[in-house]
């Protein structure tokens, strides 16, 4: 009885996550109905809270896949409750990605759930656990862009279109960055089980710096241009015009003057 009760408690959705979800719902309603006095502030709160929700789902996907792969400790660690405060580095997992969105306007890979790798048997399981997080971002992006690629925008308010486009942009950038086969990112976790022991030992000393190297490379003009060209191509394939995403990012920055093109 105690074990069953404990397990139910380990999987109960956290009030913290429910509170974030409530903020997303209320501010999304405010954007949709044009209820807010400051539309940009409503878009900012809606996109930020939705972004945090997506971060929680990203980590939940890792943890849930690990649970089915053999790591039964993820429940006791609180990873199945969707509580962002349960992550190994709450600041790096949530605060830093949110700050990066505010400052840089791209979805920064965040989150840290500690998986006991020794409990996972089989290379495919290890790869799938690493891939699960970015795949959650991909699914989130598909949901956000569904009105665009389904040509179902009739009745969708302009401000809400802008917000969805920018939120989808964050998901796409996060997924693409995270899938890079660079140590410290999920993409490396996908390929690592298939590397030889010798190669892994050679890469290991650089693993703590991989993420920071990627961020530094984004400041190189040629790399930055190539990265955003790829993002723009993906967004267009999802039916989202570049101007719509741009206006979403401009409304998000409610503290700046909104260009005339993006007035709602």
Describe the structure.
This protein is an all-alpha fold and 264 residues long. Helix content is 65%, strand content 0%. The protein contains 11 helices and no strands. The chain has helices spanning 2-11, 15-33, 39-69, 90-104, 123-149, 158-178, 186-191, 197-203, 210-217, 221-237, 242-252. α3 (39-69) runs antiparallel to α4 (90-104).
Could you tell me the mean pLDDT? Answer: 88
User: What structural class results from the helix and strand content?
Assistant: mainly alpha
Strand and helix order: HHHHHHHHHHH
- What would you call the shape? globular
CA distance, first residue to last residue: 56 Å
Strand content: under 5%
Largest sheet: none
Q: Which range best describes the helical content: under 10%, 10-25%, 25-40%, 40-55%, 55-70% or over 70%?
A: 55-70%
CA radius of gyration is 19 Å
Number of beta-strand segments: 0
Number of helices: 11
Low-confidence stretches: 1-6
Membrane topology: Multi-pass membrane protein
Subcellular location: Cell membrane
Cofactor: Zn(2+)
GO molecular function: peptidase activity
List the helices and strands and how they pair.
Layout: H1 2-11, H2 15-33, H3 39-69, H4 90-104, H5 123-149, H6 158-178, H7 186-191, H8 197-203, H9 210-217, H10 221-237, H11 242-252
Helix pairs in contact: 2-3, 3-4, 3-5, 3-6, 3-11, 5-6, 6-11
Main features:
264 residues; mainly alpha; 65% helix; globular; disordered N terminus
Summarize the structure.
It is found in: Cell membrane. By secondary structure, the chain is an all-alpha fold.
């Amino acid at each position: 009885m105690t074990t069953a009760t404990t397990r139910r408690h380990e999987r109960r959705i956290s009030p913290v996550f429910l509170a974030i979800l409530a903020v997303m719902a209320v501010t999304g309603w405010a954007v949709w109905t044009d209820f807010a006095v400051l539309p940009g502030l409503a878009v900012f709160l809606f996109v930020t809270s939705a972004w945090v929700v997506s971060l929680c789902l990203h980590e939940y996907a890792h943890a849930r896949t690990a649970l089915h792969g053999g790591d039964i400790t993820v429940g006791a660690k609180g990873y199945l409750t969707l509580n962002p405060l349960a992550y190994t580095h709450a600041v790096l997992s949530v605060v830093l990605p949110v700050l990066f969105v505010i400052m840089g306007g791209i979805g920064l890979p965040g989150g840290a759930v500690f998986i006991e790798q020794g409990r996972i048997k089989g290379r495919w399981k290890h790869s799938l656990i690493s891939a699960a997080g970015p795949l959650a971002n991909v699914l989130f992006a598909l949901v956000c862009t569904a009105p665009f690629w389904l040509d179902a925008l009739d009745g969708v308010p302009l401000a809400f279109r802008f917000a969805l486009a920018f939120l989808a942009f964050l998901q796409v950038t996060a997924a693409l960055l995270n899938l890079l086969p660079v140590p410290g990112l999920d993409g490396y976790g996908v390929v690592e089980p298939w590397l030889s022991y010798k190669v892994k030992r050679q890469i290991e000393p650089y693993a703590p710096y991989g993420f920071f190297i990627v961020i530094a490379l984004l400041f190189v003009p040629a790399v930055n241009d190539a990265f955003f060209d790829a993002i723009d191509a993906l967004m267009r394939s999802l039916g989202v015009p570049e101007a719509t995403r741009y206006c979403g990012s401009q409304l998000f920055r409610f503290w700046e003057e909104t260009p005339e093109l993006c007035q709602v």
